[in-house]
Specification:
The complex is a heterodimer. In chain A, a hairpin with a 7-residue loop joins strand 6 and strand 7. By secondary structure, chain A is mainly β. Chain A folds into two domains: 794 residues, Maltoporin, Chain A; 25 residues, no CATH class. Chain A is built from 13 helices and 43 strands. Chain A has a 27-stranded antiparallel β-sheet that branches. The longest helix of chain A has 15 residues. By secondary structure, chain B is mainly beta. Chain B folds into three domains: 99 residues, Beta Barrel (OB fold (Dihydrolipoamide Acetyltransferase, E2P)); 99 residues, OB fold (Dihydrolipoamide Acetyltransferase, E2P) (Beta Barrel), CATH 2.40.50; 156 residues, Jelly Rolls. Helices cover 8% and strands 38% of the residues of chain B. Chain B contains four helices and 27 strands. In chain B, strands 1, 2, 3, 4, 5, 6, 7, 8 and 9 form a nine-stranded mixed β-sheet that branches. In chain B, strands 16, 18, 19, 21, 24, 25 and 27 form a seven-stranded antiparallel β-sheet that branches. In chain B, a hairpin with a 2-residue loop joins strand 18 and strand 19. Classes of the chains: A mainly beta, B mainly beta.
């Protein structure tokens, strides 16, 4: 069955119903709000991680009032769906007007306030290019979390959630005093989330979160506020691997990151983050018509990811290709192939998982004499670690000032504007987390040691040669990224009887540079100290119009042209080792527009949208660990253009006073739209692997999101305060992310066009269509002044464990045997649930 | 308000408690590698069965010191170890983690012993499961040998750390690199000693010195002795150990090719005249010749070199070649440091060094004398002489050629 056609038929069906009309359903929005649950699957997590991305944007949209966006948030995000295909840097998240997007990655990292759902649900979300008095916004939209204590419902809310996803238990407590007679309002919220083991084997979660918001009304014109929040989180993560390991273990959630230590499951990849945010807000009502909001903020904290590292020994990771049966597919290796297959299929954890006991064993007897320790001339003999757990840290220090003013010029014209200054620094380094029983680690690069005769070349830090590393010491690399940003924007909004409109303008000055804290042995001249500053001037212009055909039929159009400074994170070729930036670093240019037809009857609400977005001159970078080179290889492309065109449709129809049907459909064509230029270098070599390489990427699909998704849902809402509903979601046009290098001349240079291998190398893999059914229900009671609510969500009710939601081709490949390094793929979690009971008073 | 403070405080405390309960793991029980039966390296080598792969199934420990490691990239997943009884070539399933000077115990259970192109190897070792390091920096001194020594017992020298003095890379290799770093290909180069014996030096294209130009000088080579089929194959541990940077030695050769007995300052002395030294030729090759003839003349004839100034030499050597019809002892080689160059030999002190050389044993086959080290004669006035004593008892003849002093 062609489900694209099925999806299209939704449009017809709902367009037919849309003539009907009845009362509105603000209540459905509350239901939607109740359904705010974390939908990040850990599989997704791993996938994102490989892309050096940290978070998905879907959380942003979950409280959206728009039926399409809310459906996409709840039902599509588990399939890694991204609205309009946009990356999350195109969404701006603010809190009390303070931008929360990280200047280095461009992204708002939702995990930093994870568990504060009672607070973050109070957000004003703007989808797409739109007017906002707080920020210029991005092409995907903007969202402001109102964290003023008075924004939280007065009273106390206590809830307990039980789930089988990332975490098992969640307790949450929120209390808001409301505005008290002394002019003070206080709100606090806190939660704890915990699981010994999550849905995926070997994963774990332990997170706390806190939030305090205090506001003091000084007089009728001035209020001062303080907000502080944070979410210390420790999470054992899951891997994404090739199909081979899933098939061998019979487990599509096979997780290679853990192993047994003394009979206990231990995960090698633990994320440990805690980045508190502090802000002071000043609300100044200059007049009835003019309001000024100003804020000072400071955020700081750590973000660490642990991983196993090893020296002078074989790659111990079970999923390393040489440890898999497929490494023995050559003629003559049949016996080993059979043996390795049997070992994997027997699910013996010694083979299929990490062997921690072995790491300790190896570390217990590896005597080594380190000479000239730390450059002092002394020598030390002891057990040198063969295996360690290291933590890759990226610690942020960011402070700044923010102000936004609105002025009502007339009943019909609203002016707004603002300015923002941000002084940002991230400290990027490795810390030795666990020596696994050994006495020390030596901070030299084993590969550079072997490659270069000059013993200095292998030194991570010439200022501290032959560094003997103990637990807690920084080593490997250590550099800061500094980003200073100054931004100002202005906006005018007009409201007329037939037409509403807005226009906005924004200017931004960005300056970033790298500060090296180590003098790398291979790059002594350009690794230590401050690099040259990279300066960019950017501007953006946006405008939109709403034409009211009638009060119930609206046509809206929005457009924007934005230039954006390249992200510091992608600008440096190998920031771990040197300050060299990619050649021809350019501003990104974004041209975007959408046209919407909106119908708003009390009984029927629909929106149909077509959109077009072109992003030009993106800088793209990815680091991957090369097993044989034993180092990170950095793959950088400049001149990456992307094109996003497509349509969205969403409809919500009240079939009866208790039954509501929803239908959504989105289909797009998200593609690369240029032939970028690639530079490839490795961290531990002065040699450029390749440069000025043309990549024939044009027209390949972006693999970050299914390109077509649709959903139909039915909801019953009883007058007796209970509701139940289900959604059927269908996804298609799911593509694997391509490896750019396979789309270059050199990839097919020793083949002729008629060779079948040419197609195998060039072709993009499309994954199968698939569907999910989600279910939810809830009931609430009011006993005296107590509200009791029970909610239940079940995702993937049919327990479909074969839904490949995406993947990526490994950057490493073998021209003559393209299947040697098959793509990494991830699966949607099977049936998961989240049940919550809450008391409010 | 108090309630609120309490609530706030408890909130912070509990939030931090939640994350402070991260898992702690106990160290696993210590594990050891059993010792089993202790073998010497010679005993391990003796486990080899020709033509077979012997798999070790018992706990057998062998002790030794690592003599070559992977540091320079010339070895890959390989190492060499040595004890008083011999050396072993070790092959691992991964990087070894071994360094030169590591004193190790290898439990060879699970390993395989076989020969690959005649080189005996202990294969399939696991760097964690088979190896225990006992101490570090127990460096072994290389055994000083000549190429001839090695050739005399290739099997016996397999895997041993050796040093050969007075060698240089052959003329045709000079200016070339150790190996092909670009294509990562191993390449063989050749060393030559003073007797013109040659030996192969093979270097991996992955070695970090592969692209270095071969040193052009003369000096000592240190490395591991290997075998490839019938031939020796030497392996460099680290080019820093090679001292092939000495000036090429000055060679003074008397080869008679100018058909002159006395050119170059050579003289003859006849304390009992009768038998003259002459120059003869055969197939175009000229040589010094002496015979007392079928008449079995009695006489004493000396062929004496010019004075050599060896005072600035480090390790001067003498060699030559001889031919005779049948084994005899009429020829003697003498050395003096106080001869005046003109008088009869008896006016000076001569030391008989005849027994330091090899000689032709008959059939007129040319025989290389081998090197005689002149390190005891680092003096300004050294004379070499060939003394022939004819007796009435036998008809003796000697041919002498390519008399070479290498300063």
């Amino acid at each position: 069955m062609n489900f694209k056609k099925l999806g299209a038929s939704f449009v017809v069906v709902f367009a037919g119903i849309s003539a009907q009309a009845q009362t509105d359903s603000v209540k459905t929005d509350t239901i939607i709000a109740e359904r705010i649950v974390p939908t990040f699957s850990t599989t997704l997590d791993a996938l994102e991680d490989e892309n050096a991305e940290n978070q998905d944007v879907s959380g942003l949209l979950q409280s959206s009032r728009d039926v399409f966006n809310s459906t996409a948030g709840f039902n599509f995000s588990a399939a890694r769906y991204r609205i309009r295909g946009y990356d999350s840097e195109n969404y701006i998240t603010t809190m009390n007007g303070v931008t929360l997007n990280n200047p280095e990655t461009g992204r708002a990292i939702w995990a930093l306030w994870g568990g504060l759902n009672d607070v973050t649900r109070y957000q004003e979300t703007k989808n797409g290019i739109s007017a906002s008095s707080l920020t210029f916004g991005g092409i995907g939209g903007s969202s402001n979390i109102n964290a003023r204590p008075t924004a939280l419902r007065k009273g106390t809310n206590i809830s307990y959630g039980l789930a089988n996803r990332t975490y098992q238990h969640r307790v949450m407590l929120t209390h808001s005093t409301g505005m008290m007679s002394n002019g003070l309002a206080v709100a606090i919220s806190g939660s704890g989330r915990y699981s010994d083991e999550g849905y995926v084997d070997g994963t774990s979660f332990s997170g706390g979160s806190y939030f305090v918001s205090i506001e003091k009304k000084i007089n009728d014109k001035h209020s001062l506020g303080f907000v502080g929040f944070g979410a210390p989180t420790v999470q054992g993560r899951s891997s994404i691997t090739t199909q081979e390991t899933y098939t061998l273990t019979g487990n599509n959630y096979y997780n290679s990151y853990w192993g047994y230590q003394n009979g206990e499951k231990r995960n090698s990849r633990v994320r440990n983050t805690h980045q508190p945010y502090l802000m002071l807000n000043h609300y100044f009502d200059i007049s009835k018509k003019t309001h000024l909001t100003s804020s000072l903020y400071y955020t700081f904290g750590k973000s660490g990811n642990t991983r196993l590292n090893w020296n002078n020994t074989a790659d111990p990771r079970p999923e390393y290709w040489k440890n898999l049966p497929s490494a023995f597919e050559n003629p003559g290796d049949e016996a080993q192939f059979a043996q390795q297959t049997a070992l994997w299929e027997s699910q013996n954890p010694i083979t299929t998982q990490l062997d921690w006991d072995q790491f300790y064993f190896a570390n217990s007897k590896n005597l080594f004499t380190l000479e000239n320790v730390n450059g002092t001339g002394a020598s030390v003999t002891g057990n040198r670690a063969k295996y360690i757990i290291e933590e890759q840290r990226s610690d942020v220090y960011d402070y700044g000032f923010n102000t936004a003013v609105t002025h009502k010029l007339s009943e019909k014209l609203l002016l707004s504007g603002g300015a923002r200054v941000s002084i940002y620094k991230s400290e990027n380094f490795k810390v030795l987390n666990d020596l696994l029983g050994a006495e020390f680690w030596v901070d030299t690069d084993q590969f550079a040691e072997r490659d270069f005769k000059d013993p200095d070349a292998a030194q991570a830090d010439l200022n501290n040669p032959n560094k003997l590393v103990k637990e807690g010491d920084r080593f490997g690399y250590d550099y800061d990224i500094n980003i200073n940003t100054i931004n100002a924007f202005g906006q005018v909004e007009g409201t007329f009887s037939k037409i509403d409109w807005y226009a906005g303008f924004s200017v931004t000055q960005t300056s970033f540079w790298r500060t090296g804290n180590m003098k790398n042995g291979l790059f002594p001249a350009n690794s230590y100290g401050d690099s040259e500053k990279q300066n960019f001037f950017n501007y953006g212009a946006k405008a939109g119009v709403v034409y009211k055909l009638t009060g119930r039929h609206l046509i809206t159009a929005n457009g924007a042209y934005i230039t954006r400074a390249p992200l510091a994170r992608t600008a440096y070729l190998s920031p771990r080792t040197r300050d060299q930036v990619v050649d021809d670093l350019k501003n990104e240019k974004i041209l975007s527009g959408d046209l919407n037809y909106i119908v708003r009857y009390p009984k029927v609400k629909t929106r149909a949208t077509v959109f077009y977005t072109s992003i030009e001159d993106k800088t793209w970078s990815r680091s991957f660990y090369h097993d044989e080179l034993r180092t990170f290889v950095n793959y950088n492309m400049t001149g990456v253009d992307q094109l996003f065109v497509g349509m969205e449709f969403g409809a919500e129809v009240n079939l009866t006073s208790t039954i509501t049907a929803t239908g959504t459909f989105a289909s797009g064509d998200f593609t690369y739209n240029s032939r970028p230029t690639a530079t490839i270098i490795q961290d531990n070599s002065t040699k450029l692997l390749e440069e000025k390489k043309t990549i024939y990427l044009k027209n390949y699909k972006l693999g970050d999101s299914p390109q077509t998704a649709s959903s139909i849902g039915l909801r019953y809402r009883s007058p007796k305060y209970w509701f139940v509903g289900a959604d059927f979601n269908y996804f298609t046009d799911i593509y694997i992310q391509v490896n750019p290098d396979r789309r270059s001349e050199s990839a097919v240079s020793n083949l002729v066009n008629t060779d079948p291998q040419v197609q195998q190398i060039l072709e993009q893999t499309e994954l199968g269509d698939d569907y999910t059914i989600n279910f939810y229900a809830g009931k609430s009671w009011k006993i005296k002044q107590y509200f009791i609510r029970i909610n239940l969500n079940i995702n993937n009710v049919l327990n479909n464990k074969d839904f490949q939601t995406g993947g990526f081709e490994q950057l490493r490949y073998n021209k003559t045997n393209i299947d040697k390094f098959p793509p990494m793929v991830g699966y949607m979690l099977g049936r998961t649930y989240f049940a919550m009971v809450s008391f409010s008073f | 308000m108090k309630k609120l403070q309490l609530l706030t405080t408890s909130l912070f405390v509990s939030a931090l408690l939640f994350t402070s309960c991260t898992k702690e793991f106990d160290n696993p029980e210590p594990r050891t590698i059993p010792v089993g039966t202790v073998y010497t390296i010679a005993q391990v080598r003796a486990l080899y069965v020709p033509g077979e792969t012997v798999k070790i199934t018992e706990d057998i420990s062998v002790y030794g010191v690592v003599t070559a490691d992977e540091t320079t990239g010339n070895l890959y997943k390989e190492a060499y170890m040595q004890d008083a009884t011999g050396a072993l070539y070790l092959r691992f399933t991964s990087s070894t983690g071994l360094y030169i000077g590591d004193s190790i115990r290898v439990n060879i259970k699970g390993a395989k012993i076989f020969k690959y192109n005649q080189m005996l190897q202990l294969d399939s070792l696991h760097s964690d499961n088979n190896i225990v390091k006992i101490a570090t920096q127990k460096f072994r001194t290389p055994e000083v040998v000549t190429i001839a020594d090695l050739n005399a017992d290739i099997e016996g020298f397999q895997g041993k750390l050796i040093q050969i003095d007075n060698v240089k890379f052959v003329e045709r290799n000079l200016g070339l690199t150790y190996a092909d770093a670009e294509n990562k290909e191993s390449i063989s180069r050749f060393l030559e000693d003073l007797t013109l014996d040659q030996v192969e030096v093979r270097t991996s294209g992955y070695a970090n010195f592969a692209s270095d130009t071969l040193p052009a000088g003369n000096g000592s080579f240190i490395g591991i002795c290997g075998q490839y089929n019938a031939d020796l194959q030497l392996l460099i541990r680290n080019p820093n150990e090679l001292t092939l940077n000495g000036a090429a030695p000055i060679e003074i050769t008397k080869n008679f090719d100018d058909n002159s007995l006395t050119s170059g300052g050579w003289t003859t002395q006849y304390p009992i005249p009768n038998i003259p030294w002459t120059v003869a030729s055969f197939n175009g090759n000229y040589y010094g010749n002496i015979t007392n003839g079928s008449g079995k003349l009695v006489g004493e004839s000396w062929l004496i070199s010019p004075p050599f100034d060896l005072s600035n030499s480090l390790s001067p050597v003498l060699n030559f070649k001889t031919a005779t019809f049948a084994s005899n002892s009429a020829l003697k080689v003498m050395i003096s440091t106080n001869y005046d160059g003109v008088s009869l030999p008896a006016t000076a002190t001569w030391t008989d060094i005849t027994s330091s050389f090899s000689y032709s044993t008959g059939g007129w086959s040319w025989t290389n004398s081998g090197n005689f080290s002149l390190t005891s004669y680092i003096q300004p006035n050294v004379y070499i002489a060939f003394q022939f004593i004819g007796t009435a008892a036998s008809w003796d003849s000697w041919e002498v050629d390519n008399i070479k002093i290498i300063k």
